[in-house]
UniProtKB/TrEMBL annotation:
It holds the Pfam family SCP2. GO terms for molecular function: oxidoreductase activity. It is found in: Mitochondrion; Peroxisome. The keyword Heme does not apply. InterPro entries: HSDL2, NAD(P)-bd_dom_sf, SCP2_sterol-bd_dom, SCP2_sterol-bd_dom_sf, SDR_fam. This is Hydroxysteroid dehydrogenase-like protein 2. The keyword Transmembrane helix does not apply.
């Protein structure tokens, strides 16, 4: 990498261990400033690391560390840490809401204090930390909020065995939905979730002895987070699975992330139902339990969404330099709605909704024809001449887009 996060300030909750610390160390290698906002100031009897040992590792990796004792249930502690971060580093560029509480228990087995803990840490803590950081994030050149939370799937099977936990994690995801739209064009807000189980202290407690052989290292989430946090702020409102994103970024060898390389029996991020019943429960843990269980696996993306996902991963600086255009798509049919490809702003972007800046070209067509066009089954010129495609705006740019499609067809 090109030290893309050098000088940036990251405020990471639950960064004293696990996934939060892995993300911190990845950014520290660029020379970033890391605010370690976690609870563990004194060594925990069973969980490794404190905010001070994490700070030492971050400094050794090349970053600057600011350890802050923060229980995200306490609003004043969040406010104090944010103010200290701004005073120390001059601002905040990135917020990672990683701290979580987990109890994989049924409704009758979940004590009220555990329900309160999960709602307070996962939903309220994420909301309040985001709210406190946002005024400073809006002043940053390329601000991001990243929540460690799953894509939402309302299939009842993901609620029935641990209703309170699923509700609380979906609360974090709903923060992404709402804030991404509320601050579109100002602050990027996205969610990240693992495809497989991730080996953390929380996973050891939930899965028991030997579970690590079915897990990947926290490095995979750190690498995925880095990809997200170095994208332009127009990349927002996405629910990202680590492996899917890294494949789009060109990663081919995922064996390097496995605790036991060469093993093909990796557990999905949602443990088996037997493990969930016997795994017990865990509260927040000093510094926050990490996002290591998946109540909602990703549904296969729709053809239109998948097409835009691939385009986002394939767009290069050269495409932006040679095209210099913003394209808006008004699609009708089953996947109707507004989508865009921005080949003018910074590194380029693509996704759902209106583009971050005014479109140069607006194209209207059915979602089915859109997919055919972008996979080479329907030529844009033929679609236009036959009336399947309507174009408003700069026709020269529309032709440039057609040339780019020819280059990308092998990936689409």
């Amino acid at each position: 990498n090109f030290r893309k996060l050098a000088g940036c300030t990251l405020f990471i909750t639950g960064a004293s261990r696990g996934i939060g610390k892995a993300i911190a160390l990845k950014a520290a290698k660029d020379g970033a400033n890391i605010v370690i906002a976690a609870k563990t100031a004194e060594p925990h009897p069973t969980l490794p690391g404190t905010i001070y040992t994490a700070a030492a590792e971050i400094e050794a990796a090349g970053g600057k560390a600011l350890p802050c004792i923060v229980n995200v249930r306490e609003e004043q502690q969040i406010i104090n840490a944010v103010e200290k971060a701004v005073k120390t580093f001059g601002g905040i560029d990135i917020l990672v809401n990683n701290a979580s509480a987990i109890s994989l228990t049924g409704t009758l087995e979940t004590e009220t204090k555990k329900v309160n803990l999960m709602m307070d840490v996962n939903v309220r803590g994420t909301y309040l930390t985001s709210k406190t950081c946002l005024p400073y994030l809006r002043k940053s050149r390329n601000p991001h909020i990243l929540n460690l939370s799953p894509p939402m799937n309302l299939n009842p099977m993901w609620f029935k065995n641990h209703c309170a936990y699923t509700i609380s994690k979906y609360g974090m995801s709903m923060c992404v939905l709402g804030m991404a739209e509320e601050f579109r064009g100002e602050v990027a807000v996205n969610a990240l979730w693992p495809k497989t189980a991730i080996h953390t202290a929380a996973m050891d407690m939930l899965g028991g002895s030997g579970i690590e052989k079915q897990c990947r290292k926290t490095d995979i989430l750190a690498d995925a987070a880095y990809c997200i946090l170095t994208k332009p702020k127009s990349f927002t409102g996405n629910f990202i699975i680590d492996e899917v994103l890294l494949k789009e970024e060109g990663v081919k060898d995922f064996d390097v992330y496995a605790i036991a390389p060469g093993k093909s029996h990796l557990s999905p991020a949602g443990a088996s139902q037997e493990e969930k019943r016997s795994g017990g429960s865990q509260g927040e843990g000093p510094g926050g339990a990490q996002a290591d269980m998946e109540p909602a696996p990703t549904k296969p993306p729709s053809p239109v969404a998948e097409t835009f996902r691939v385009i986002q991963g394939a767009v290069s600086v050269e495409h932006v330099r040679s095209t210099q255009g913003v394209f808006q798509f008004e699609l009708s049919g089953d996947e109707g709605g507004t989508w865009y490809i921005d080949l003018k702003t910074e590194g380029g972007s693509a996704g759902f909704g209106k583009p971050p800046v005014t479109a140069d070209v607006v194209m209207s067509m059915s979602s089915a024809d859109f997919v055919k066009m972008f996979t080479g089954k329907l030529k844009p010129t033929l679609a236009f001449m036959s009336g399947k495609l309507r174009i408003k705006g700069n026709m020269a740019l529309a032709i440039k887009l057609e040339k780019m499609l020819t280059q990308l067809n092998s990936k689409l």
